[in-house]
Amino acid sequence: FYHMDLYGSKERFDIFPEELPGRGDRSLGDTRKESVLSSEKVPRSQEIGYDMEKEVAELAKMYGLDEDREKELELLGGRVEMESRWPPARTQKAGSQGSIYNASKSSTSVKDQSQSTKQQGLSGEASQDEDQSKARADDEAESNIWSREGLSSGGMSDEWNSQAVSEEQEEEEEEEVANVFCSTCKIPIRAFDKLFGEHKDHEVTQLPSALESEKEEIHKNICKLEKQIAQMENVASHLEEIFLTVEENFGRQEQNFEVHYNDAVQVLAQKYEEQLEALGEEKRQKLEALYEQLVSSGKHLDTCKELTDKTHELFLENDKAEFMKKCNFFPYNYRLQEFLKQEVNLEISTLPDFEERVIDFSEVEQLMNSINAIPAPCAPVINPQAPNAATGTTLRVCWGLFSDDTVESYQLCYKPVSHERHSDEQAEHTLKVKETYCTITNLLPNTQYEFWVSALNASGISPPSERAVYVTAPSPPIIKSKKIRSCENAALVCWESGDINPVDSYTVELYKLTDEENDDIITESIVGIPNCEVLIHLQPTQKYHICVRAQNLGGSSERSEPVLIHTTGTCFYLNEDTAHPLLAILDDGFTISCDELENPECDLPVYDNSFTRCIAILGSLIPFPGKHYWEVEVDEDTEYRTGVAFENTPRHGHLGANNSSWCIRHIITPSRHKYEFLHSGMTPDIRITIPPRRIGILLDYENCRLSFFNADIAQHLYTFKSRFQHYVHPCFALETPGILRIHTGITIPPWTAL
Description:
By secondary structure, the chain is an alpha+beta fold. Strand 26 and strand 27 form a beta hairpin. Helix 8 runs antiparallel to helix 9 (about 265-315) and helix 8 crosses helix 10 (about 320-330). The two termini are about 95 Å apart.
């Protein structure tokens, strides 16, 4: 810490004398000489000590330590002069070094005093007392200085403590976050301010509601900006294409002048230069006009993107209060509203075509009559269809011209492709376009169209291009909701194509519905489905929205109308094609009724798959392994049959009378209600004392069981044990006029476990 010159100086050896080695045996004369010299050096050492303090102060000033100490003393409130103290850079370190120096100084003084006492007596004692009193005075002065510094630091710590308390109070106030939004002042406030503050009479809303409304408004603005960005990008792209077209047309006409005027260059030199200059001036005017409009479009586009970025940045703000503050006081709001009010000029300022100039060829009329100014163009080349570039009603057709011909416009022709013999009779449509692409609208979905194109200029029309076949995207499929079957972990979805022509494949999209998530988020997609049905594995006790898309070369169709599926239990529908003519299905689709039985074999229309003798109906096939449960609500005075049957069960017989059906039968006898459990016409002898009003049916494919229960009292009635070779249909029949109500989508009750 101290300068090295302090320890290497000559005075240092005078203040701290050391015994040289080999001088241990000294004579009495030498000792007396040393005592005399030591008594003479006492006042000199005091002077040297004073000079050392001055030197240390100068060194501290030289290295800038006194300025640091003055700043520290000003902060601590002390008023100590730098020249009277050692300038420590660290308080503890400086104190320790100062104490070491004082200890060494006092030990040296005691050593000198002891030697002087032995030789000089009273004079040595006087010098010793004087040195000790000086050491005590130095120690007391130094302790006073440190005590004052301690008081100053204590006062400073009190100031810091008071400041920390105030900061804690401010933090506690900031912790009371605003939780409502003042619609009058357009700022977030605390609920306490609404009840007792200055916002008492103002209209307030919940902060989340205000946040959602502001986000919705921002989303609308973003959509508007994105729409304008898309429009301006299209205009800019169109301008660039016209810009290039102007350049190409200019180059072609220039080349045309050069090629056809070479034979008459001497006669037409002057006129050539005039025409070329006029053409260049027209080009310059066109390019300047297009450039100005392009620059203006670029500025408008940059402004749109800047506002969009700022709006996105605001939209991603997570702090609700900060978000609402920025929404209402953000300086770009006024600019955004004014910008959206501006009308954008989307019209092209100039056309790429040049004026037809009349040149006086009277001097060389005969020569010029033999020259064709512009040849007829060659046939264009039409591009094949790009994948996923079509919609259900639109097609984008592109072509190219692989020559240097001058073209003023194109003629695009198309017609639907028909595989019938008289396909040539299809109506043709013709469009005239300027660019090398065209979007055709108002087309039929999933339909093939044949396109060909020709190029035109002042000299004539080119031969047509080769014909290319394009196809539009399909129509959305139509899901057959009445044929959907589901259980706790799977669903079988069926649909039909919305088009006459076949499609390549289908895609099924699943949307898992929850209370927190948005139902627009696709949970799973199943692609490449070749036919119109698919078996989907699902999670139990969930709700799903299911949509279907059709795919072909042109692209994907829109989503079909979604259907809702619950995986709480087995769901099926009644198959109307199997119903007996006297059996009616009510509007809910799960209630069957029969009003008359006078002529069971009536003359009503009968379908090929309908029951003819038994007034019965089958439900949808249950094609899922595992357990399935449903219930049938019955009346005590109605005779009925219900159970399961194979697809090929005879339609001219009764349920349970063959080996392809299993059912419970209820009949009323004069003495009691009789219940039979029929399979192949046989039934066990079982008596049921409590007639069931609600019959539970449990189908267990894996354990080969079909069980019946009285669901009202959770009573097991009977169980068939049979190995089902195929999947089965639920079946229902009425033997007297009455009603049966079927309940599906029920979770399997725990009391059905056998």
